[in-house]
Specification:
Its cofactor is Mg(2+). The chain is of the alpha+beta class. Helix content is 24%, strand content 24%. It has one domain: 4-Layer Sandwich (Deoxyribonuclease I, Chain A). The chain has 7 helices and 12 strands. The strands form 2 sheets. Strands 3-4-2-1-12-11 form a 6-stranded mixed β-sheet. Helix 4 runs parallel beside helix 5. The longest helix is centred in the middle third of the chain and has 26 residues.
Length: 268
C-alpha cells in the first residue's frame, strides 16, 4: 500500500508541542503533506525539520508567520517544485510538489478568502490560475505514464454534505456558489477524483475541520475542506480513506484532523 496523509497543522511549531511529533512517530503514512506551517525550516526544532526516516521539503511564505506548505516522504523524491508558475502566488507558501518514481504528490493550501472583500478577489485569482495548472499537470502526468494526487486544505466545502451548517454559510467564503462550481470543474472536466467522497458516498462529512469556538468539535459541526484530488488511475486504487479525528477536544493538536488515504499502488 501507498499511504498519503494531508494535514493543516495550524502552525507547525505549536502543533509539535501539542502532539504532532508523537502522531508522526506513530503514523504508517509514506507521505505526509502539511499546510499552514507558518515557519521557515531554520525556525523548527531538528526533530521536526528533519525527522528520522523522512525526507522533507518546505515552501515557506514570503510573508513571515503565514501560510507555508511542506511534504515529508519516506521515499527519496527525485525532484521537488515550489509553486505552479504564478508570478503572484509562487512565493505565498501555498504549493509544493514532489516526484516519486510513479507519482507526483502535491501539498496545497488554497487561500481562505472573505466574501465581498479583496481577500476573495485574491482567492478567485488563485483558483483561476490553479485550475489552468491542474489541467497541465494532469496532461503531463498522463503523457509520462504517471499519476498525481493534490492533497491539502482547499478551503471550500463542495456540497451540502461537506458542511454541517450549510444553510448558515451560503453567503460566506468557503461555500459560495462560484467556489463550489469551480470544484465541480476540478472534479469534473479538469479530470480529478475526490477520493474521500468516492469512498464515502452519500454521507455527511466525514468532516476534517472544526472551529475552536463554541462546541463545534463536540457536536461535530464541521467542514470537509481537506481533499485528496487524484488522477483517475491512482484514485481507482484507493482502498481506505480515514479522517483521524481526535478522541477528545483536549487531544487535538490542530483545528484540522489528518486525512489519510491508503492506495493499493506501488509508488516505487
Amino acid at each position: 500500500m501507498f499511504t498519503v496523509t494531508s494535514i493543516n497543522v495550524n502552525g507547525l511549531r505549536a502543533a509539535s508541542g501539542k502532539g504532532f511529533t508523537a502522531w508522526l512517530a506513530g503514523t504508517s503514512a509514506d507521505v505526509v503533506c502539511l499546510q499552514e506551517v507558518r515557519a521557515e525550516p531554520h525556525q523548527l526544532a531538528d526533530e521536526v525539520r528533519e525527522p528520522e526516516g523522512w525526507h522533507t521539503v518546505y515552501a515557506p511564505a514570503a510573508a513571515k508567520g503565514r501560510a507555508g506548505v511542506a511534504v515529508y516522504s519516506r521515499i527519496q523524491p527525485s525532484a521537488h517544485r515550489v509553486g505552479f508558475g504564478s508570478a503572484e502566488f509562487d512565493g505565498a507558501g501555498r504549493w509544493i510538489e514532489i516526484d516519486l518514481p510513479r507519482v507526483t504528490v502535491v501539498s496545497l493550501y488554497l487561500p481562505a478568502g472573505e466574501a465581498e472583500t479583496p481577500k476573495q478577489d485574491e482567492k478567485n485569482r488563485f483558483m483561476a490560475e490553479l485550475g489552468a495548472h491542474l489541467v497541465v499537470l494532469r496532461e503531463k502526468a498522463a503523457a509520462d505514464g504517471r499519476e498525481v494526487v493534490v492533497c491539502g486544505d482547499w478551503n471550500i466545502g463542495h456540497t451540502e454534505a461537506d458542511i454541517k451548517n450549510w444553510k448558515g454559510n451560503l453567503k460566506k467564503s468557503g461555500f459560495l456558489p462560484e467556489e463550489r462550481a469551480w470544484l465541480d470543474g476540478v472534479f469534473g472536466s479538469v479530470g480529478y477524483i475526490d477520493v474521500v467522497r468516492s469512498l464515502h458516498p452519500g454521507v455527511a462529512g466525514p468532516y476534517s475541520w472544526w472551529s475552536y469556538r463554541g462546541k463545534a468539535f463536540d457536536t461535530d459541526t464541521g467542514w470537509r475542506i481537506d481533499y485528496h484530488a487524484a488522477t483517475p488511475g491512482l484514485a481507482k486504487t484507493a482502498a481506505t480513506a480515514v479522517v483521524e479525528r481526535a478522541a477528545t477536544y483536549a487531544e487535538r493538536w490542530s483545528d484540522h484532523a489528518p486525512v489519510t488515504v491508503a492506495y493499493d499502488f506501488a509508488a516505487e
